């Protein structure tokens, strides 16, 4: 029993991460990306109007409030929680929402309030180093504004910005609800491309396995893939529910003609989530494939050993016989005894070779 | 830690596929089959009337619009998106539908509009090379017309065309809703035959495994089967939902007497989807069977090695004894010492043979 | 890549089975059992009346139509589709029903029509050769008649026939709905006995595995069991749904007092389907057990090899030493050198034996 | 093909068990426990009254019918079906209920009738030999009586009998519905203790595996555990549904104040069924653990072989060199050649030892 | 058969644990933590008022009953069931609730009564020794009081106590329903940190496996992790249902403005339960990883053996040839025969080395 106790894994003490055990509703940033300043990017547009303002001063956002146009306020950098709180208080956001905006491990969700929708989702991407990044994004959708909060610079909305600026597509002719749709659409497209990368990784490992090129333990890579697909799933599945709910909610914030687009978006995210399930199964299958590869290799090793040993052990025995020092061993005195033995050994050698050939080990 | 980093798979950069990151509602062809021209095949029929027109000119379709007959317009080739857009605009199709028609990786779905139903599904087949092909088909069902859009020439509707032309079966006596049913019925029959091919592959591999004919790693084949069954499932499951919904929707487009046929079709697609689940389990089972086969083979290899080594190593030892050069070894001087030893060795040889026989290793 | 292409399984061309790609509603027999003639067995009974007529003439059935008694018309042999069509037209059966009667791979289902219920189910049995047979049975239940259609002679209804003839049980006092119940009850009892046979097979294999009597690859047997349980499941699960629906439908065809029996039948089929799930798990477990058996055997083989090699290789080395021809090897000249060496070798021999004994390998 | 046919398992003919293929509603005992006589145990009580009567005469039960007290009639022994039928007819029980009472493999279920509830459940226990016993119990709950039917003597209700007799707890102050609750409560407690035994078995096997004490194939034990947990599950899951339904049904038979107790009971059986699921997973995990143990052992065996062979094969080769009989081998004539060789061999010996040490194989 | 009987595991007799087979509603403590005395900790607060009283006298709690403030009575120690009963009777708690308070293996649940809610949940933590502890906590929530019952001293509510005392956060401005929320919130945060510890353990084992540092059988550790995750799941899943129900129930006990907080809490516990599912999958994956590691090691062992044997067995054979004593062996008399042989042997040696190198075994 003591022996077993000793075996128990000695863990280094785990100290609780900073985002827990705090006061509910308190606005504490829990992410890792510490932006020097909180940057604001304000895009104000209507059919005939376009204005863009980049600022680091939170007050600049307030000027656009009464605008007749659609205003998209994008906030990059969540670690200056004071600023977030000021913005939140100005827009009259519930304290729990302010908390959710900066709680980066918050699960995707949607809360409906009288004057706005609050949506949390995740933006995924692979860095150039192949690391998988999961960025927390929140969005407040009001009557004529959309506010998005991101952890840091860099996102998947450049195509959308371009369409707004250059009046491409329908976005300039439509309201804040269409902008919300366009943002979510960019996110879902982002998921498609992340899954494509993952799929390429899976195929790469499969090819390695099929071509017997795997020299080292790839369990680690498979385990990493497992974790990535689980994290993607964790981002996709709740967003699917959210989009489904957006399609169905009865709110003045979303016009009926936008519902068609939402429905289409819902079809897309279902497709994403089906892909996630399929790739998940594929990844789990990789482990089995790897096990088979290992077993096949061991089989090959064993065959080499068996062939070498089975051929040379009997031959060595034959040589051993005539190495004995008995006084009376008539074969030793035969004129061609040595050659006869060689003949016998060659016979045995080829006989065994033929045997292994027939067994298809060679 | 650095050692582990190095092991991480270096992927070639994956560039996003062309069908994403675009403007929602924009009509961009995403498939691979680039048809030189968009071909139209127009079949106009009623109980007493049959006319067929093949054309490459989209305007030819418009002439049939006000026809009292049922008109089936089949469009082959989706890469000339301009033509698709013209046809779509003429029929007043929603921009998102036009997008779905050319988005070849769109999941099967049905959208109900006031004047028509829009249905997306997949046509599956194996090429002669054994490749699995998944063709995107869209269908618009109106009051007296059905329009189908396919990626390229070649489909599973020849039997149906023949029945219309030769007035076989009921199709000529019925309306556009029955034509829709007949098209979906041909698709479901197509699924049955694809599954039959898959089932034949599975049985083939099983037979190979049972007869120990598998010489090389068949993991790749099993993995390919897994992917195929998953792709079939992806085509079948949403279509099942669609057919279920068609059976239940309340629309003037579908007559009540056609509902019986739809219900029958629903029974069939349920049967398809059950088969898919069963074959899926079978395919997953193949991997286990293969592992067992490998282990059995290794067992056989090990037995040969063990038998050879266990018999000849002791004999070699015995020969080694009398190869020693001690001055005082009385056995060496016995008159029949050599023969006695042979007798002993033969005894050991057969004793071990008997032992392995009893263990059923021989 | 070309190497991998070559490995792809070359399948013999699969030609589509005859029952697909046909006109919907067309009556084409798809089974294998080609009965020479279509046999009719007509049982007409009431509390005080019993008449049985065996015939090969389909018209004989029509004479019973207006009978006040309950009439059970059992049709054996479905390949003379003309006869089936005549009977079907006489009873005014929908073309799709006529198709389902002869489509032997039709999934179990129930269709409610105004004047009758149409039920499709499967009769299962093992032949004496151990083959698993799945016979397609259809049943039309009208106000005072039940018509059953079977592929061939031989069924599980003999007990029921006997009870009708000899007025045992309640069947003679009740109507066509009770007859329907009695037929389904016989089918469910049939499922119980098929599962019993399957369970006996599973236990047999388990016993073989436990007693280490398995000499050859039993993967094939396990795979066969898997297929059988999946086919049983495919018959049972839809019938469970059908019986559940029969219990709940509101139709004049089924009297209320019969509902109690249907409910009891439903309990039974639930029990069947639970058993199916349990045996399924058991069968999947057999594969694991077999793998363990293989591994245990390999362990045993390895132990024999290791013991033999580990004992005799060092001894051979010792003998090899004194087989050397160095001029100056003092041991060779010792008076009892040879005996000393034997002593040492015996010591090594028993030492190693003791070591393996302690390791519990012997 | 013929070779494969031969391999098919030849089963001894399975003859159908006696409880099937009979007339529905016919009362035939299907269990194994053949009690010599059917014993009645009648407990009649109210707040101030207690009477107990043990009898073998079924008529004795009828005397208590009109009693104002609560009457618990416990019947032990079901093989005298005549007696059961008489009792059943007296209480006006539906023929199907009478059948269910003696059909020992009937699944747990509840039927609601106007005047009584009929509940079937299972009593589980391990015999002293470790065999798992599954006893069929039926219960009829009327306005002021509860009748229970058991296969044989011996049950889990002694605590309850004692409480009634000695007026402990609430049971004497309450009606037949509370008695029903108390009986079910005893059954659920019985499930808890069966699961505890099972859990002890699992832990025992785990400990054996961890301490490497497993000398023989424990697959059989694990398979037995699997079967036991599946049988427990089969008893627990339907009873859970039954208790849930009892909580919800609207019947005069069950007073509202008893519902609180039923709800509590429902919490308990949910806990039982969760435990069942957890232990099931644990048992399935045992097989994996066992496989790992086997593989670890084989690893150890292989290491011993590899070490012995790798050390002594090179040494034997070295000795073999100097056992050759070439005329010109200068080393043989060196004064200390023999000792030099020993030095070299010792060097090789320790070098390889060090190598295996470094590899952590020693 | 007898041989198999013998193999059956002989279990030590399991005696039923003390908490079962008792009278329903009887208050018997079933836990292990026997506190010397039952300690009361009473915190009475409102916006402007704060009073804390620690006592071991149960009557002290009654003084606060009519208080206008919110009163939190925390009871540590459940083994003095008399005290619990007195408190329960005073508050008019149903006997079944009193039983649940001291039944430490009671599953988490919520019962709604007219004047209070009764909630059972689990507090989890790892001891410093790494043991996993599961503490039973009950909570009664009334109009202006919350009573909590814990098995022993030490809990996760210190942060909350601090906030109440120092008037941090909102708790002092709100009622008993907010206190209930704050307690549940602390519990859910507790689950987050337990899962974090578990996740650290999983990563630790993974790292050990990847770095091939695993020297001994870690099955035990994995099995322990499995049990822990299952126990966490058992605490989390029912609490999730409870919180969902709290969000939805219509009771005067919970104010509408508190519902927002409950909804947020519900999001958090969903996140916990998703993590549980993910880590569960991870833990199950560890076993596969371990199996792969073992197989890889065996491969390495086999390679060493194969290389050593394959190289030296042929060489030994060559030496054996020239150790024979034939009279006529011309090579023996060659001037450089010995050197030629060495050359041949070196050739063979490097040839085989090259072969194994090419096979990438070296």
From TrEMBL, chains A, B, C, D, E:
Major location category of this protein: membrane
Bias-annotated ranges (Basic residues): 1-18
Record InterPro entries: CorA_cytoplasmic_dom (IPR045861), CorA_TM1_TM2 (IPR045863), Mg/Co-transport_prot_CorA (IPR004488), MgTranspt_CorA/ZnTranspt_ZntB (IPR002523)
Keywords: Cell membrane, Ion transport, Magnesium, Membrane, Transmembrane, Transmembrane helix, Transport
Pfam assignment, any one: CorA
UniProt-annotated location(s): Cell membrane; Membrane
GO MF assignments: cobalt ion binding; cobalt ion transmembrane transporter activity; magnesium ion binding; magnesium ion transmembrane transporter activity
Transmembrane segments: 304-324, 336-356
Gene3D superfamilies named in the record: CorA soluble domain-like (3.30.460.20), Magnesium transport protein CorA, transmembrane region (1.20.58.340)
CC annotations in GO: plasma membrane
Membrane topology label: Multi-pass membrane protein
SUPFAM superfamilies reported for this sequence: CorA soluble domain-like, Magnesium transport protein CorA, transmembrane region
The UniProt record lists the keyword Transmembrane: yes
Residue ranges, annotated region (Disordered): 1-24
Domain of life: Bacteria
Function noted in UniProt: Mediates influx of magnesium ions.
Family, similarity comment: Belongs to the CorA metal ion transporter (MIT) (TC 1.A.35) family.
Record-given protein name: Magnesium transport protein CorA
Organism of provenance: Marixanthomonas spongiae
Higher taxonomy: Bacteria, Pseudomonadati, Bacteroidota, Flavobacteriia, Flavobacteriales
């Amino acid at each position: 029993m003591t022996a077993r106790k000793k075996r128990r894994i000695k863990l280094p003490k785990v100290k609780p991460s900073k985002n827990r055990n705090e006061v509910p509703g308190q606005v504490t940033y829990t992410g890792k990306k510490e932006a020097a300043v909180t940057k604001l990017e304000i895009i104000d547009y209507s059919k005939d109007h376009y204005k863009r303002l980049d600022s680091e001063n939170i007050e600049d956002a307030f000027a656009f409030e009464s605008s007749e146009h659609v205003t998209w306020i994008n906030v990059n950098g969540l670690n200056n929680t004071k600023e977030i709180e000021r913005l939140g208080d100005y827009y009259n956001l519930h304290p729990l929402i302010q908390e959710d905006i900066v709680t980066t491990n918050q699960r995707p969700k949607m809360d409906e309030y009288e004057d706005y929708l609050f949506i949390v989702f995740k933006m995924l991407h692979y860095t150039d180093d192949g690391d998988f990044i999961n960025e927390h994004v929140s969005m407040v959708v009001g009557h004529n504004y959309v506010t998005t909060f991101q952890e840091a610079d860099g996102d998947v909305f450049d195509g959308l910005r371009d369409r707004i600026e250059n009046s491409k597509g329908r976005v300039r002719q439509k309201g804040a609800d269409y902008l919300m749709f366009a943002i979510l659409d960019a996110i879902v497209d982002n998921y498609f491309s992340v899954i494509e990368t993952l799929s390429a990784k899976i195929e790469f490992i499969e090819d390695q396995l099929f071509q017997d090129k795997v020299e080292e333990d790839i369990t680690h890579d498979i385990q990493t893939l497992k974790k990535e697909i689980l994290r993607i799933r964790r981002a996709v599945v709740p967003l699917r529910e959210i989009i489904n709910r957006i399609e169905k909610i009865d709110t003045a914030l979303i016009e009926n003609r936008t519902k068609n687009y939402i429905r289409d978006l819902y079809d897309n995210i279902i497709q994403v989530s089906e892909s996630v399930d399929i790739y998940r199964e594929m990844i789990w299958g990789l482990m089995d494939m790897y096990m088979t590869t290992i077993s096949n290799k061991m089989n090959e090793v064993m065959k080499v050993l068996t062939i070498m040993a089975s051929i040379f052990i009997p031959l060595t025995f034959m040589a051993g016989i005539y190495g004995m020092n008995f006084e009376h061993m008539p074969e030793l005195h035969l004129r061609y005894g040595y050659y006869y033995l060689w003949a016998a050994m060659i016979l045995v050698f080829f006989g065994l070779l033929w045997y292994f050939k027939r067994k298809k080990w060679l």
